[in-house]
Amino acid sequence: MVRFLQLLAFAWLAARVAELDAMTLASVIGRLKMWAVSMVQRAASHVRKGTVQPSKPWERFHYLAVTYHKSGVYLMVTLWEKIFNALGTTLDDTGMWRTPPCYTLEMCWHPAAPVRCWIDMFSPELRDKEEAATGPVLIAGTVRDPLEMVVSAYCYHHRGKEVVGNMMFWPPGSVAALGPKKGVAFVAERMTQLVENMTAAFEFPRNDTHRVSYEKITRSSEDFDKQVKGLLKFWFDGLISPEEHQRALEAARLVDMHRHPEAAPEDHANDAECMNQARKAVFAMPIQLLARYRAFQRSTITITAAAAAAAAAAAIIRLNLSDQHIACSIASCGKSQAMSLRLDELRRALPRHLQERLRSLGRSDVSSTGPIVYWMRSCLRGHENPALDVAIHASAALKVGLVVFLHIEDQYPHATARRQLFLLQGARSAQEELLQRGLSHVVVHVDRHGNRGVHRMLMPKAQLVVAEEPFCVPWLRGIEELRHMGGPLWLVDCASVVPCALVPQAACHRAYAFERATEALHQQLAPRHWHEVQPEGEANAPLGWVLPQSIDLKSQHLEALVKDMDVDQSVAPVSHTCGGSSEGYARWQAWVNAGGLKTYAKRRNESLDVHGVSRMSAFLNTGMVSPMRIARLAFAASGAGKGKFLNEFLTWRGLSYAHFYHFSMPATGATLAQLPSWAQQTLLQHAGDQRKVIPVEQLRAARSGNAAWDGMQRYLVETGELHNNARMGWGKAVLKWTDSPQAAIDVLIELNNVFALDGHAPPSYGGLLGCLGLFEGPKQESAVVGKVSYKPPKSKYAAMPEVARELLKCDVQVGGIARYFETPTADHAVGEAAPKRRWTRKLESEVRAPLIEID
Ligand SMILES: Cc1cc2nc3c(=O)[nH]c(=O)nc-3n(C[C@H](O)[C@H](O)[C@H](O)COP(=O)(O)OP(=O)(O)OC[C@H]3O[C@@H](n4cnc5c(N)ncnc54)[C@H](O)[C@@H]3O)c2cc1C
Fold it and tell me: What does UniProt give as the signal peptide span (predicted)?
């Protein structure tokens, strides 16, 4: 009787599926007959949970096939049924559920079965509940372009395919009465939650989640096979015999409409004319709704690479689950299993927030037994450091030691004593942090006379080198060198809030496009806390050889080290800004406490108002503070200036990083080719225009003859800083004083990178090339600059040296105070809780000089 009711229930459900996707009743009955026959045939041989060794995959794992209205419901349900049927499931093993609340009991049956199909209801929250109740589940689902789902749903329901009604979305008949404009918007609005669930679950599929692309599986038989093979690998790799695999594949092929057009449900295809009209009507949707769907769309597009990785990652999970029946983090995989992993499998098993920051170059196999080496160069911090976390994971998974090679280089273009001291101060604080994190193989190396090239001896010993994404000069050269060495190399984006790899290349030319493309991701990622990974014993495992000598920067005279370096010693360090993480967070905190974030929108455009802006760029560009943390803190703050600050910080900064990630400059330096083609053309067309050429030495010495420009240049030379608003006029003037567009680029880079403490970073090149048309469109044509916009420096900037004196005076005090701040602790992360009490106490007891207003 129970069986009979279940069969009835399945018939009812299949009819509902048929109603959803226009499958005919005849095909439902046919399918049911096949199902029933196969059940009987297999019942005798079937083994369910007992004391004997599990012999079927679903005796080891739970399986979930999930699908959403118009993402391929018919397809997924039939695939699920055919594949598991072919492998011998019985009715006892299978269950189905649809959209809570379950309207009728017949629609939902056997909720605890090990092999289930869910329609319209899967979400990350439900997955978590499910996992808590049943243990690990291998989930596969169909995903389709969300706007195509809406268009298809509109046309389908508009032609009256709502016999029983789509109870969860709208009352029967309502869509049939609406024309495309209203109808598409109506359908989109009602399907939002469902699409959001789909996107959230499959945007960055976890390694227990696999995406089946609707677009691909319906494109051709070849693509169908690829998708099905991917699905079978994900679900059953190592769990079924080759014969069973072949049987499942053959059974699945019956669902391929290209091979079996007769299997397609009747009346399935929408009218092409309706689809065309509905696609056009998408653009008439309310702007907010369309923006939401665009964000969904981007998310479903960006997932492709990650989705392809899921099958391999699942193999790792299965490897462990099948023996231990518990989910295994990569860190706890057994040694022999781990050693046999290829690096790309290991990479796919990393946590999502690291995986999406990682680019793999060089070989992908693990061929030596050497350590993991993290080459720390431009991300000088021991916290919230994605490259370090990746290296720790890799060391744990491969059960080998981790060497952190903290390297301060010299002999790069425009290296100065000013910058080197700042970097060394940052390195000193990073060294301390690394030791506090429990890492013992930390080698600090400072390039200087007679002491260079150590990295070239160390790197070949590594079985994997992890380095920071280089983005621009001077970091590119070292990465090129490493690539020539040929070993496995992972580059990790440590600088972006939204990882550059997730930003579409096409959105990296203009700020508005970048902002739009990343809006949803920023909303999602900016508030997110960083989950630090703790190094385990493996990281400090003996290496079996002697590491290069390390410098203890705490006990070193940093100025003396700088003197020994091959850098421009004529550009003296600035005393008002001291490098290091706690210095950076202290500056941030002081600025926020002083109301800087609140008044940012009002004050940020006034270049003479030194403390109207955060002055964080040098700390950010050298990785001494975490951009993720600054984003998080700003996001959590309130006040009028917050939005504007986030716009500058997330959009303009993010754009620079994403641009140079996707459009790499040569390791030898930026050229005219880094500009948009309209800018290249117009500048070359005007290259012969008459102009006053001023030698670079004169410009360096602030002797252009233009009082405003010279004022800015002196300010830059003296302080190592220049306000954003002044910078554009400063840069554009140089374009008129150099004898060619390429010379303008070279001189600008020299002036900026030699003197600015925040130089040598993507925002530097973004700003400098921005003076020549990058991130802009063509404007009114004029001599020399062509169609590149031009604004002369404002005359008030002649007074900037006066401001400089004020800045230096104030900052000596702020810098003094900053050094008293403590490093983050569990309950008080630097910069996250207002350290007002401690700050005041230090002010009173430690600081003698007159104080600036800080609160
Ligand atoms: C010709 C020229 C040269 C520049 N050179 C550099 C440089 O060498 N290094 C550098 O970091 N920035 C450079 N910029 C961008 C910008 O001027 C600085 O980022 C900003 O002045 C840093 O000051 P702040 O930290 O007080 O910024 P705030 O106004 O407090 O902004 C906070 C953060 O947002 C980011 N940010 C703000 N404005 C921009 C922007 N326009 N582009 C990119 N990021 C931004 C920075 O990380 C900054 O620290 C340049 C701009 C121009 C026009």
Answer: 1-22
